[in-house]
């Protein structure tokens, strides 16, 4: 018996469901464009097999282990490595069994939808995951991974991915991307310029990072102008490895546009480790505007991902480090925060700034009104906790009326869970087709326009926005 | 082929759709009450023809040109006048062609629904607007406008408008309203008292404006008591031109209720141009309470429209001035902000204060709970970006359960786009009937009560709230 | 003719409605667990009849009288007692008539659903309440109340209540609970430890209250350690009267975790009446963490109910006192506010902290992400103004995808309106079944899992969360 309903996520009344099904059929086989994510380029460069079911689905997926932690299961028992490198639980089959026994916790969550989709569509498993089937699951998945059809490049091809962006630090040597470029494999894996380590005065080792940026570029990064020039050169280098975009993940959406001397002084304080929290924040905000100016010159599109309070629990941060499920969204203001940036470059037609949010209330109140008037601004898809049926539905319902569809930028999966990529894009395609169908049946959209839009939301807009 | 689905915006399941259709039929021919808007009284006073399709639908409509701007089209190319009076694009047919070629941008927006409604119901056009049909559209609309049936008064009558309020500055001489009053035309066009220019210390030429208020009323507006008296007289004058309401558009919902001496001192500083930003804000807040006290005396209802950050882009403000689509909603707090006002006069049964918001999150959290207990407070309809299918639906879903229907104030269109008035009221009527029908089919409302409420939401409540 | 649709609140498409009906049938007869509320233990201890229809349904119910007040009806006319003890309207039949005449105000509100449910299911009335039927209603209800079947204990049994928690001040002697414990009646009525009067330095008579806490426990509550010990003893005493939980209703969600000396100094200032507003707030915040530590020791679960601005209108507070419908929700921040508490004890598996909100925007942004990772944190059901069809629907839609079902804590009615208890639980059961059915028909949940979850949401989770 199939695990997934073939009409899943489509509207419930017959007429809308029929239209949605037709729309979905028209776009369901389009290639996947994945312009923002966190898969490892080494997977594709080396093309060595994934280790086992637990390493593939449990250990690296913060959606999965955070839910298990919330019900009292230890990160250690799930094989999540400690910051000092030790792992308590070493047996992947035991990790998998613990996950399977608690799979009921994921009922009603997108994780279950993604996982069931992977189990059925990637591994051909038609039985439900449970304590009873855990062992068979583990054996089947782990054995499959050892076969040629499940090597990273084979899966990439099977997933019909046209382009996949990874994200690397500005200091990364991009050796895997180079190796990929030198190989004869045709898969398009591109990098993304992520400069947090060298624009955030509060980042660990900021001054050393900036010095390293100097070494990598031959610029004198002890002066602000040399530092900016180093960014320019580094962005060029990332472009040679396919990059079409930069990515910026600050705690708030604050931007600034200081006069050069003021920015330069902040930079000197930052290098000296003398910035107050406020000054560090101001410097980060100013650098967003500098990055936007560079984008005007070099054509990289710019992504802003604000609003996450990272490492909320200090104990977990100490034992297990960053990105362990304790990053919590916070209220995020955009109207005043983005004003310096948008006053500087927001009217530029050749610039694209894609903004994301973890605060849904900003969609109808702030982000759709901003994207509905500034040529440079586009809305990114619902992100992180909102990459879900309800999240996507509310995104369309709260933005379309004010900024339309053409100020949005398609879907991106933002994931490190490789096998979830087809599942996530499938959810987005279904929810968008469902929304379009409902617009048709409530007389808000012509059916022929819905067909065009289904293509745009799936494929056209993302290629255009990310220049792919 | 008709452009509009006759069942548009109604619910999707058969039973609810049937009930909604019956409800809609029972109220669809009721006259339009438009108690708040920005049409020009001169149109009706002079009754001269509208110029052409572009001047009617594109140039004055910020919903339309902001969307085009967001996709890189220049305000200049759309004939939107510059602040210095120059217009780059002078050819209305070219403006119309540019608009038509980009009409796909409006898919899924209320603008498309309003425009298609106007095209079909006002101008009888059954073909879709597109690059191909642009020229025929332009000719047909522009030619129609030159005929007697399309003169402003003829349209007013055809639209079945029972009363239409315009909005004028406290300093306006209301000569068009006077001319209308002296004419033999029966159309009811009333004014609204909008005192921003003389209550906001940060308004351009505040001191001169206050002096002019003195000249107009014969009061000594250099003293606070004379200034208040001038307001009283001016409000009386507006009442003779039909006004039943005042309107107040501040950046926040802040109110204050200072002792007279403190208010008087703030006023002196304001006149002297010596208010800090905080003092200016405090003075505006205090004046809302003064205005409410005057309303207690003269019976004018009071409208508060807070929460827009005006002229977000300074460059556009410099070249093209105010109201050019760059007004962006902001987070708006009401509970503490309205407390001084509501403590002063909120329990008064003879007073009506209608509050609007651009921050939807306030509906369920703050505004419905406040309107659900204070006799003086009523909720205005969803406003501006929320004057839409989804905006109206969320308004009902987030307010009804806490403050019911009888603490709301019907619909108003708040528009300067005259031809959109029937379209906008039609959307509101359909969405309300759809909501009522769904309440019936989910067992939350008796069908006979839904019929009564359809009438109240369309006609009864707005007449009562605005004393029309 | 029945007043209530037997399929009320179920989904509208046939397939979902059918599944929802099956789910509802499977759980509709389960006993009621009411782990948080404000009924009077004296009712059950004394088991004397309720006085009349007005005293039962109008006078004590702030949902009811606030709506009537919003339309200009005086609290006095509704028999709501003044703070000085006087009541203007003494005739309960007149109060009832006034309420009945205005019953249309409740159309579309949960109050109407609860009231109609009580009228039909508790009193067997099948005619609608109106001005015409008011008198018959009054007579029928009032006469019924005088019969044995309508005594408090008889209703408790008829309502199929398995456990009912009341809420008492830390200083309460719990004499009614003692009397109930000594009686031979089997109904399970338990208390809840509510220490506001002795943890909030701004509470009336704080120092005296703390002294009284000393007398009651024999501890020296003039020292911080003695004061903490007194809490421990008092909590033990509440446990002997059945308590399984504490309850904390602060204005914000602020928590603190100060070093003992700092906490001790704040306590001394509080006792001396010398705390600034900020210090009082800090002390309250610190005491939440102290209470959580005590919960770790004694196993009482902890409830946090923040975000209400109490007694918004000072005039009504002066004439009629607290809890008169003028408590208004405010924007509430949780991520930073709860961080000290969650860093101190959030990873403890044996601790349960149930958090509520009056700010719905926190569900998807803050509360579901927090509850979806911290073992100690669970989400309380939608509260107060959100104890409604739409409120519950939005709660599930904005939390399930991030924290699943198993990090929620079932339903609680939080009511002082005894007859509304079955109605409120019935609404929750229907809305949950409707939501589960829709998950099934959109392919997001297996039907067999929906059956399990219907039981958990109704009965399993609340018993587990509250240790009942």
TrEMBL record, chains A, B, C:
Database matches in InterPro entries: Metal_Hydrolase, Uronate_isomerase
SUPFAM superfamilies given in the database record: Metallo-dependent hydrolases
PANTHER family in the record: URONATE ISOMERASE
Keywords: Isomerase
Cited NCBIfam families: PRK02925.1
MF terms (GO), sorted A to Z: glucuronate isomerase activity
Gene: uxaC
EC number: 5.3.1.12
UniProt family annotation: Belongs to the metallo-dependent hydrolases superfamily. Uronate isomerase family.
The protein's annotated pathway: Carbohydrate metabolism; pentose and glucuronate interconversion
Species the sequence originates in: Granulosicoccus antarcticus IMCC3135
Protein name: Uronate isomerase
Reaction(s) catalysed (UniProt annotation): aldehydo-D-galacturonate = keto-D-tagaturonate; D-glucuronate = D-fructuronate
Gene Ontology biological process: D-galacturonate catabolic process; D-glucuronate catabolic process
Keyword Isomerase on entry: yes
